[in-house]
Structure formats: structure tokens, C-alpha cells
Amino acid sequence: QKLLNMTGEEVLPIDSYLEDYKKQLCDRWNNFKHHLSSIIKNEYTVTNFADFSKYGFFVECGNQFYRLNQLDEIEKLTDNPVLVFRQWSGNAKTMSVVGDFNGWNKTQYMSTQQVYGVHTIRIPFQQENGKFILPIKLGSVYKIYMETYQGEHLFRHPLHCEYALHNDKEMCLEPVFYGHNTFTFQNKRPQHDQLRIYETHIGMSSKEEKINTFKDFRENVLPLIASKGYNCIQIMAIQEHSYYGSFGYQVTGFFGASSRYGEPLEFKKLIDEAHRLNIAVFLDLVHSHASKNESDGISRYDGSNFLFHKEDHPLWDSKVFNYKQVECQRFLLQNLLYWVKDFNVDGFRFDGCMSMMYWHRSAGVGYTGRYGEYFDQDCKVDEDALSYIRLAHVLFEELKNQNVKVTTVAEDVSGYPTLATPLLQGGIGFDYRFQMAVPDLWISMMKKGFDQGLNDQENINIGKIRHALINRRYQEKHICYCECHDQSLVGDKTLSMWLLNEQIYTNMSIFQPASDRTKRGIALHKVIRLITSSLGGEGYLNFMGNEFGHPEWLDFPRVGNNESYKHCRRQFNLEKETTRYADLSRFDVKLMGLLEKYQIQSGREFVLYESEDKKYIIYQRGNLIFVISFHYEDQWIVVPMRVKCWLRLELNSDLKMFGGTEDEKDWSVEVKSREDVEEDVKNGMLDYEYGCKVFVHARQAFAFEIRK
Questions:
Q1: What is the DSSP annotation of 260-293?
Q2: Which of 69, 79, 83, 282 to pair with 317, CA 20 to 30 A apart?
Q3: pTM (two decimals)
Q4: pLDDT, tens only, 73-110
Q5: Which residues are tagged catalytic?
Q6: Structural domains in the chain, sorted by start
Q7: DSSP strand pairing (114-115 vs 118-124)
Q8: Where is the active site (predicted)?
């Protein structure tokens, strides 16, 4: 009710630049209120509106209802249970459930009537030896058959299909009747104020040339991630997709955990084990578009475009959701609630927010951050998409009343204001937004020649690095990263590949001397990751394997590579003790431990001094002082401070265990009065009263704890 009483102006105190666009803010809030009030009027809550439990297949017995993930309860039923199939298909004149179980008979189990577009089909249980048996055998292939009002005859997957297997002969997915006994999650959902996200993909998580499984990931990969110090996994490509090479972004089955990796029950076990390890589980969620597949997807589902706009996505050759349509909203909100309720998922990274929020779908449009780009008359904002995103966050707000916290992250390139501002402050509602300018900065530096030559400095711009890392929207939390899966794909290069080039294959054994190129690459790899995680964002993300400089690119099996899995895996075996990859891995573990111990990402950063000539920067965040040098020469650096104290070394990127030159030691440096600092260096302290000097090697980084 509070949201319905708001006007949209509540966000103005947060961002004064929005004052000129008060009308647009109010209009967009009114659009949201229109959708929300309609839901509240008819369904009382968004949670009720998004209830998925009586869609797809379920069992009715008297006035009790059971899902197919309660087979042990269903087996006990004695009062003439009925298998029910229910689905909204407004353009279907008739609807039938057909399959192996009834010889594909189109008229045996049929709905000839719809109520507000909803078809209901009832299939009585069979009786054997005095027991009621499900009328469709587990593992049976089935489909939904529809005759449309235009006379089309269609075979389709259910919209809420939870399990489909690939038919190699037909080259498509086939829905399979699936259920399992009641699974009770044993471990509580982790609660983390500061996220260290490990972006991962189940299928490519094995060192072997194959598609990995939920079971193997649970048993072997999850413990590895936990040992690395990450407290959250963001799993890609979970929603079912017919084409493996789409990286999971051409979704065909929104309610199915991809069967390539195993059964849904195995995914639930994976999530429960992650929670035992205190790791939160986020899904990389695709609600920005859908695959154009019809036979095994949801495109033209009932012969109409009821879920979608008529125009296809201009870049992705896919269908674009029509967020204005009530049943589209219901379908997508049901999908969110399904993953949270059935699988105990902790959060979502919303993919392609820019594609959702603008009518141009991000095709050939760049943004400079000028507010008129978001609010002028020709801004091309899809207000209904914004309203859908807000409705999703109303759902998550309601779930908080059930002690279920869902965290959301927006992937948005445009920089839309208030995207990560809470709903109750008039924002869109996301908890975090990706700080996407940062990986662009690092890669642009590489492409301009930073990876060339051992001592080149012209492409290192400390001011640009600092600006990219601290240029974040006020009171909006950001997830920062050096690189993600995008840079790992074939056609692009990871930071380690840019920095090491051919040395990544020939000079990574500790039994051979490191070349100058290798020393430089390893040093910069550590420095870049340290400054990104400590100066940028309120959370941090890493794509699996990049923490230790995983060589080579990602390339899914396809005709062009003879369907090879050679480059569609993660070689965690490279982290063994005899490689320089192990040095990078140990450094990343230490870095994650530092972020966990000091929880610095909840606080603001303060840049104390930077030198463009000497290529270094000094800043404070929380109770830590960071000294970062990108220079190719050793140098003395003054650390300016406002109080007398001691600085105790917590992290040194140049330790031998990290592939550097120094032995580990426990040491502190005293911060003294300005007069006590040697004349030849104290001028660098500017107007600070106190300071100390630190000797820094080429491309070295320190983190010091402040001690009084």
C-alpha cells in the first residue's frame, strides 16, 4: 500500500539532477502503480499473482494439492486423486496432453473450454493392486497439442516444463514427465553483506573434455570454490536451452534446470551443499528475451505472440517479451518465484537490462551519462519493462515477510539512474548494478598497446584508472570486476592472455626461469585484481579460472571446431604447485581473505595521493591503506596520513609464494610527523600532517592495516 501512495518524487533527494525530470519520474511511477494496483485488486499480493503451484502438472485429491516433487506424498493418496494440467493459452481453441502414455491420442485428455484463457485438463489416476498410480509413467515423453482459433494444429512443450531431454535424432529437446520425492533443504540460506562472486558454468567446470554434471560440481568444484574464499556463485546457463553454444542465453525452457547437467533434484542438492559451505547461489537469469524456437521453446506458443512483441530482437535473433501484457508479467514473475521456492536460490543477475529497458534493445546505441538520454522525449525507454522489474522487486519485498531474502544484480550498460535504488525510495529496486566501465578500461588499455613491450608507460593513465573505479552512482551499490565470461570467449582475450601472450603456454613452469615478459605479466595481473577489488564497487566478481590466469579461450562445441570440447572446460589441474598459475591462485586466495577479514567494501574509498609521472596511487578504504604502483622501476613512495599511527603490512603482491621476489615477513612502518620524514620525499605529502615512506618494487601493491 505504501508503494501505491508514493509519487515517484521520493527519489529526488538522492539525486538532484533528477529535478528537471520530475514529470517523467512520476509518469513512470504511475505506470508501475497501474500494473501493481491491478494485481492487488485481483490477487491481493504479487506473491499470489505469481503462484506457479497450480500451473503445469499437479495432483488434486479432495481439497488438497500436490506438486510432482512430492511423489512420496502422492503415493499415499487414497481418495481418487487426479492428475491436473493447467496452462494459460488464450489463442488455443482446444488443448490436449498427448504422449507415450496414451498413444499420442489427441482427444482422450482434452480441454475444450478456457476460463480467461486458462485451460485445465484432468487425467484420472489408474488403480493397480488397490493403489492409485500416476496415469503418466515417469520418464514418458509427452507434449501439449493445441488447435488454435485460426485452425493451426500445434505440438508444444508446456510453458512450465521442468524437465526435457535432448533427442539427438530430431535435434531438439523433448519434454519428459518428471517428479521426485520430497526434498528438504537442510542448510540455511547464507547472508552476506559483501559479495565475492565466483561466476561459473556447470557444463564447462570439469578439466575433462565433456559436459560436467550437477553431481560432480557439487562434490568437486564447490569445495574448491569455498577454499578460494568466495562466498557466492553466479551460475550461468541453468535455464534450459536447446543450443549449448548459446552459453545459455537463448532460453527455450524457463522453468527447466538444463538436463545436460542432470536431474532437477541434483541441482537442489548442489544448492543445499553450497549453503552448507556458506556460499550463496545466484542464477544468471534471462528475462530480456527468449529463443525463437517453437517446437521446443515458447515462441508462437499457441500460434500467437501473446508473450512477445511482434518485432524480433535486432541483435540476438530472438523474441522480445511484451512486459505490458498481464500474462507475460505473470509468467516471468512465476519463473522468479519458482527458482526461489523450489530451488532455494538466493539471488539473480538480470541479464541484458539495457535490452529490456529500451525500445531500441541496445542495438547500436551508446550512452554518455547525460540525463536527457534517459528522460527526454526521444529516450526510447520501455516504461512497461521498468514496471515489470519493479513488480519483481515487490515480489522480493513480500518474500522478506517469509524470511526469504533475494538479492538482485542488474547488468546494464546504459547507466540508467536509480536502477540500484530501493523501491521504497522511488528507485527501480536492484540491490547491485554491474560496474561495467572497469573491464572496458582494462581491455581498452591492452588493445592500445599496454600488452606490448616491458616498460611502456604511455598507456597507463592513473587518473583514468582511478576515475573508472570510483565513478559510481551515489547510494547505489556496484559489483566490480576486471573481467568476466565475456572476455574469455573465443574472439576475445583474458587479461592473462593479453599480459603473457605466448608465455602463457611456454613459461609457466617454476622449473624454468621466468622471462621478463612473464614477470611483468604476473605482477600486473595481481596489481590489477587488487586495485579493482579494493578501490571499485561494493562487491567483486571473478569468472572461474581467471583468478589463476587460465590459459586459452572458451569455445563451445560447434561445426567450426568439429564439435570439440577442448576449449570448453576449466583446467583447475594447472593450479598444482609446480606452475606459476599456482602463484596467482595463492595470491587470489589471500586477496579474498583480505576482503573477508576487513569488510572494506561496505565503506567509501578515499584517494590520498596519486602520481601520473611515477604511476602510483595511494588510497584508504575502511581500516586499510593501499599503495599501488604500476611503474616499471623500484621507487620510494610517501604515504600521506592525517594522524600518527602504525601501518602493519597485510598483503604484499610481490611475495615469492605469489610469483614475486620477497620472502614473507611481519613488519610495520611508523607514521611520523611531516618534519620527521626525509626532505627528499616529504614534498609528496602535500598538505597532510603525517606520513611515512615505503620502498616499492616495480608493479607492486601493498595493503596496510591502520593501527593506533
A1: GG--HHHHHHHHHHHHHTT-EEEEEE--S-B---
A2: 282
A3: 0.96
A4: 999 999 899 999 999 999 999 999 999 999 999 999 99
A5: 351, 411
A6: 603-707 (2.60.40.1180)
A7: antiparallel
A8: 351 (nucleophile), 411 (proton donor)
